[in-house]
Automatic annotation (TrEMBL):
Similarity section: Belongs to the AB hydrolase superfamily.
Keyword Nucleotide-binding: yes
Family matches, as Pfam families: Peptidase_S15 (PF02129)
Protein name, entry field: ABC-2 type transport system ATP-binding protein
Protein's UniProt keywords contain Cell inner membrane: no
InterPro entries, A to Z: AB_hydrolase_fold (IPR029058), FrsA_esterase (IPR050261), Xaa-Pro-like_dom (IPR000383)
Gene Ontology molecular function: ATP binding; carboxylic ester hydrolase activity
Species name: Nocardioides marinisabuli
Keywords (A to Z) from UniProt: ATP-binding, Hydrolase, Nucleotide-binding, Signal
Residues in Xaa-Pro dipeptidyl-peptidase-like domain copies: 54-308
Length: 521
């Protein structure tokens, strides 16, 4: 009972943060007129849950815009919700797309809303079938534009869990049919590899793991083994992989649940994608989007795609180490004159309708800074290496320590990492590293709230390591410096600090980052 109460409290916190918005067909019911938009609700039958024989119903709301007929078919935009949410039933929420003459289908994912079953977290064997059944439904609507039998003209929108289904649907069609039935995607704040997002280096993002579990309690959305695994992770201090007898194996459960698995099988998407990722996102950070850009798309697709990093996403206060608090999207404004939704509409007009809207920025990454600027680059991998010597951090307890990397003015945008010779005594020693900016080590703040862990399960002396750092976009002004921040603890990874007190020492430390001249889109 105590666990359920704690999770329910965390669920209320999640709702307060507004993070749920992050996520043979049955005949639809009779159309109900809402202005000039016709709305219908229905469900399709999909594959049963494990060990069951009854089909799972996946429910949807369908919005037919004014003027859409068999003689004047329109493209369709598919939408789904974030974790803990449900489909959108109000046509006013899709006014931007409906007024532009797009049809919209919004659906409850398995385990959520009116749909049945449990959430398998975008598993091809379950949610993959669900998306394919919905595509089949759309392919039989006479007022929807069809490229060929069974292949409607499709775009997709949604954030977080509502971005995960987009990659799943496109990759599953590529796997089963040899081509992605979706013609363009616009996923936001979603993941590349779910295990590495929830537990980088096997160290659990405790706050987010508990919040995601809490959001599942009211709907009983998750299989019981997943709840158990999340509690095991918090108790054991590492992502359960079944190596401890009697524990769950989350590594296997989530192995196929993201673009990383499809890429490992040699699949890449050859369609245009508008990627939106939160720079201050503490659950699916900027690096997850950059990995999708770099690995999940073909070179041709990247030339037809746009990456936007904005200040926002799955955000909780960053106090230890201290971060920044900003919500803004300067890059969408620079590219399209407004919001990410307005950018999405112009992107779909070009990619689904072949219209020339004058949209620029293709083939580039546009990343917001904490000072509300937009930095643009064609590549995200590091191009500069800076030696900073010895970096020491206590473990288990203590304050963050900052080591100067370089004095401003300069800009950084993209991926970053360290190379160093690591010495750590004790068992399960951990420290957390991130990039920070300030006028001195005493007031340096994390660039965009994130840190990543170094984990040494056993004692090591002078072992060479490559240590990932959070990807960033930052304009370091004159009079300030970029620092490497090393901390023994992190509130995002609460309870995940070292199991034995001691010191982690990095020697011959080199910071690798992408340094560039500031550009505007």
């Amino acid at each position: 009972m105590r666990r359920v109460t704690a999770l329910a409290t965390a669920a209320a916190t999640l709702a307060t943060l507004g993070l749920s918005a992050l996520g043979g067909p049955a005949a639809p019911s009779a159309y109900a007129a809402t202005g000039e938009v016709r709305v219908s609700d229905g469900c399709v039958s999909s594959v049963p849950e494990p060990g069951e024989s009854d089909a799972v119903e996946i429910c949807y709301s369908l919005f037919r815009p004014a003027g859409a007929t068999r003689k004047r078919p329109v493209p369709m935009i598919v939408h789904s919700h974030g974790w803990g949410g449900s489909r959108t039933t109000d046509p006013a929420s899709f006014e931007t797309f409906l007024d532009a003459g797009y049809g919209v289908l919004s659906f409850d994912q398995r385990g959520w809303g009116e749909s049945g079953g449990h959430a398998h977290v975008e598993n091809p064997a379950f949610e993959g079938h669900d998306v394919r059944r919905l595509v089949r439904l759309v392919s039989r609507l006479g007022w929807v534009q069809q490229d060929r039998p069974g292949d409607p003209r499709l775009g997709a929108i949604g954030g977080s869990y509502g971005g995960g289904y987009q990659f799943l649907g496109a990759f599953e069609s590529l796997r089963t049919k040899g081509r992605p039935v979706f013609d363009a995607l616009a996923p936001q704040i979603t993941w590349n590899d779910l295990s590495s997002s929830l537990a980088p280096e096997g160290v659990v993002r405790t706050e987010w793991a508990l919040l995601l579990a809490a959001a599942s309690v009211p709907a009983d959305a998750l299989p019981q083994n997943v709840y158990k695994a999340l509690l095991e992770g918090a108790a054991l201090g590492e992502w359960p992989d079944g190596s401890v007898p009697g524990t769950e194996d989350m590594a296997s459960f989530m192995r196929k649940n993201g673009p990383a698995w499809h890429v490992s099988k040699g699949r890449r998407l050859d369609i245009p994608v508008l990627l939106g990722q939160g720079t201050t996102d503490g659950l699916f950070p900027l690096q997850e989007g950059l990995e999708n850009w770099r690995t999940a798309l073909t070179p041709k697709a990247r030339r037809q795609s746009i990456f936007v990093g904005y200040n926002g996403g799955h955000v909780l206060p960053a106090v230890l180490p201290m971060g920044v608090s900003i919500t803004s999207d300067p890059c969408s404004k620079a590219l399209a004159g407004g919001s990410f939704e307005q950018l999405s509409l112009r992107f779909f007009d070009e990619q689904l309708r072949g219209q020339d809207t004058g949209l620029g920025g293709y083939g580039r990454l546009h990343i917001a800074t904490p000072t509300d600027e937009c930095l643009t680059t064609r590549a995200e991998r590091p191009n500069r290496s800076i030696e900073i010597g010895t970096v020491a951090s206590s473990t288990a307890a203590g304050l963050p320590l900052a080591t100067e990397i370089a004095a401003g003015p300069f800009t950084v945008a993209g991926s970053a990492y360290l190379t160093a010779d690591v010495t750590a005594v004790g068992v399960e020693n951990r420290a957390f590293y991130g990039l920070a900016v300030g006028t001195s080590p005493a007031n340096a703040r994390l660039v965009q709230n994130n840190v990543l862990p170094l984990r040494e399960p056993l004692p090591v002396v002078g072992e060479k390591r490559r240590i990932p750092l959070p990807a960033v976009g930052v304009d370091v002004p004159a009079g300030q410096s970029l620092y490497l921040l090393a901390s023994p603890i992190s509130e995002t990874f609460v309870g995940m600090s070292s199991r034995t007190p001691g010191v982690i020492v990095l020697e011959d430390t080199v910071v690798h980052l992408r340094r560039l001249v500031a550009r505007r889109p």
